Amino acid sequence: MVLGLRRPSAARxxxxxxxxxxxTTAGDARIGSLALALWLFLLTAGVVLLDxxxxxxxxxxxxxxxxxxxxxxxxxxRQTTAVxxxxxxxxxxxxxxxxxxxxxxxxxxGFTALASSLGVFACAxxxxxxxxxxxxRSAAVALQRQILRPLPIVTRQLCxxxxxxxxxxxxxxxxxxxxxxxxxxxxxxxxxxVQGKGLPAIGVGFAALGAFREAAVRExxxxxxxxxxxxxxxxxxxxxxxxxxxxxxxxxxxxGFEDGDRVQVVNCGHLPPRLLHDGAAxxxxxxxxxxxxxxxxxxxxxxxxxxxxxPSDAALLxxxxxxxxxxxxxxxxYPFDERLGRWVGREPDQVLNALxxxxxxxxxxxxxxxxxVLVLSRPPDGEKADPLPGGTAPDRPEGHRA
Length: 402
Description:
It contains 11 helices and 12 strands. By secondary structure, it is α+β, with helices and mostly antiparallel strands. The strands form 2 sheets. It has a 6-stranded antiparallel sheet with strand order 1-2-12-11-7-8.
């Protein structure tokens, strides 16, 4: 009766759509039962033989109590329990045949049983902690999908591939932001870098992205989209000031893609994009750069948009300063433009893979800032996406690189 009730429950839990793969495998064994039994037998035999040779003057059989502790690190609760029972039986069998006093034997057996039980409890605690961590990571993935959509994203005018790496490995979202939105006025794109790190920076980024998603569909002018994001960041800063938090700004590029061979850009204090075309990578010099988002009160001029060339067979690469400010062990900055020129002509995914690997090698695996890179290109005619209600393009979760 009990087994009949538990098995369907386990099956439902294993197939639950909300169950994260890491969460369901948190309690899996890291060593097979056959290999565990073999090592357990060999170690037990070695300790027992050593105990026979040393005699009662130097009993080494108590050393077996470390086996359940070791098993608790690598094994399941069932495997650890089996090791604990085995060790307790071996110690009991060897001590009953010894010539020691009765109370010494009882004390040793009791100590072995207690230590073995602690190993089982330690194993259960480890698995419970690993499951909780996996559950939190699953929640972080869900949060990430609300803040930063998986890439690539295909719209009627654009195909966006990307690379995203937050500096803090225990977090899925950092201070860099990006979004691609299909609107009645073409495809709008934003990439930005929030000042600072941690949860406050994520809050500012979320406010900026929410405003961009609404304004990109609502506003016909790209400058109005940037102004809407500016207002959202300013409101968030006002709230932060009331709660005693630091006000932050966002450097960003806001781009608008239509069906022609040009792209409209509003530069809010961000790094200029790179154009990959005709076998060369070139810097697109933007002449109308304004202050970062959240600092409009400090600037005396309204934000302005400008048009730049974007041939149909070209790719536009936009990024955050986590790329250009990466350093090697001697403090030398990453030669971004020099390296980028080597990968012109490759597919977007290949460019991103090469950049990711080269950055890792150059910096020795030490990252000092979040990294976000988008490679924007015209989609082939057969891959152009139909507009969806609300103006949002369909995403493709399998292509995300976070």
